[in-house]
Specification:
With about 425 residues, this protein is an alpha+beta fold. It is about 40% helix and about 20% strand. The longest helix has about 35 residues, at about 25-65.
């Protein structure tokens, strides 16, 4: 969400940021609405001033026994009252029109974000680890899971339809092990506080993080008008909504392992097989709340925390700086971490780490009081996957697969798997 005053004073920069994202300039249309609103407010103020003055004149007229003059003034006050009521309603409509227009405009990209329209314009920042060489044709994760008899799409389809899966036995335990390992790492070594947040949120919570109103079709909604979270970012970031924090309490770092729900309305036909793109999946989310001065350093730190998971699991990956046209709605700057999947012979996204500036904070009313200062400021928010649990499971299956169809357990996960060395099909 943007401050219309800032747009008035920086119209060229505002439009340039939107053009960098591949959008049309918006300042002229927004300022036209704002100009009408401001002119209307001025007219209301003048009307109210005249009403106040006329009310005082009524008393003077009556004191002077000028009943005719008093009656005329009373009629004017009554008319002004009706006009003010109508004017207040129009002001609310103009404010709502401006808010609705601002609510669907994405955040502006940082200066160091490269220009571009899509994934082909993203810039590789670093590549860590080398893809392993197989003496056999590596399988994709769903082939491995089905051979093991522990990944069941058919039963899931009977229960819920397409884009769902049932994990059983050692694979279900592996999913839990991955999440536990991530949470222990982020809380034990990186200082994040674990939370178990609500999975159902109200409109204002989804609005606060930028999911509403623009992306309603990508979410699941209940009959009671709750929204199922598409990521724990929604719940965790809203922990600070409508608050004024002390600078001494920042940064706030939160993490949670939750199910996530996405209708994937905009992804028809993509990754229809397997677990890459599902309606329900789990993720360990990272959220930071900090000051404007510390936000960029916090972004680099968060990305490093997410990368460390892959390093500990010994999974090859690369980190990409997204171009302006490929960033999420609320982001100023985003790093995508992509893990190597030998079954696909490609790097695939496993985490996005974004710094959002004060974009979400303005929508949530989340502020802080600087040390020694009197005026409050908006906090800056960040979020990232630390990591997507299902995609991490996919990466382990594909990178640790054996020719006989078994899967070796990464060293870092063995304590969470009861010492299990590998996952094998029963009877192997």
């Amino acid at each position: 969400m943007f401050d219309i005053k800032w747009i008035r004073e920086n119209a060229a920069a505002f439009d340039a940021g939107l053009v960098k994202r591949g959008l049309e300039p918006q300042s002229a249309a927004l300022l036209k609405i704002d100009e009408a609103r401001r002119a209307h407010v001025t007219a209301l103020q003048e009307m109210q001033a005249r009403r106040n003055a006329a009310s005082k004149e009524i008393g003077k007229a009556k004191a002077a026994k000028d009943e005719k003059g008093a009656a005329k003034l009373m009629a004017e006050v009554a008319k002004l009252k009706d006009e003010l009521q109508a004017g207040n309603l129009r002001e609310k409509r103009l404010v709502a029109e401006l808010d609705q227009a601002l609510a669907i405009i994405p955040n502006l990209p940082s200066d160091d974000v490269p220009e571009g329209e899509g994934a082909e314009d993203n810039v590789e920042v670093r590549k860590v680890g080398k893809p392993g060489k197989f003496k056999f044709e590596p399988k994709q994760h769903y082939e491995i899971g089905e051979v093991l008899g522990l990944m069941d799409f058919e039963t899931a389809a009977k229960i819920s339809g397409a884009r769902f899966v049932v994990l059983k036995g050692a694979l279900a335990r592996l999913e839990r092990a991955i999440a536990s390992f991530m949470l222990d790492l982020h809380t034990g070594e990186f200082g994040y506080t674990e939370a178990s947040p609500p999975l159902l949120v109200k409109d204002q919570a989804a609005y606060g993080t930028g999911n509403l109103p623009k992306f309603a079709e990508d979410l699941f909604q209940t009959r009671d008008d709750f929204w199922l979270i598409p990521t724990a970012e929604v719940s965790l970031t809203n922990f600070v909504r409508e608050q004024i924090l002390d600078e001494a309490d920042l940064p706030i770092r939160l993490t949670a392992w939750t199910p996530c729900f996405r209708s994937e309305a905009g992804a028809a036909g993509k990754d229809t097989r397997g677990m890459i793109r599902q309606h329900q999946f789990s993720k360990v989310e990272l959220v930071s709340i900090t000051t404007p001065e510390e936000a960029i350093a916090e972004h680099e730190r968060m990305t490093a925390c997410a990368e460390e998971v892959l390093k500990r699991l010994e999974l090859p990956y690369r980190t990409m700086l997204l171009c302006a046209g490929d960033m999420g709605f609320a982001s100023q700057k985003t790093y995508d971490i992509e893990v190597w999947l030998p079954g696909q012979n490609a790097y695939r996204e496993i985490s996005s780490c974004s710094v959002c500036g004060d974009f979400q904070a303005r929508r949530m009313g989340a502020r802080y009081r600087p040390k020694g200062g009197k005026e409050v400021r908006f906090v800056h928010t960040l979020n990232g996957s630390g990591l997507a649990v299902g995609r991490t499971l996919i990466a382990i299956l594909e990178n640790y697969q054996e020719k006989d169809g078994s899967v070796v357990i990464p060293t870092a996960l063995k304590p969470y798997m009861g010492g299990m060395e590998k996952i094998e099909r029963r009877g192997m």
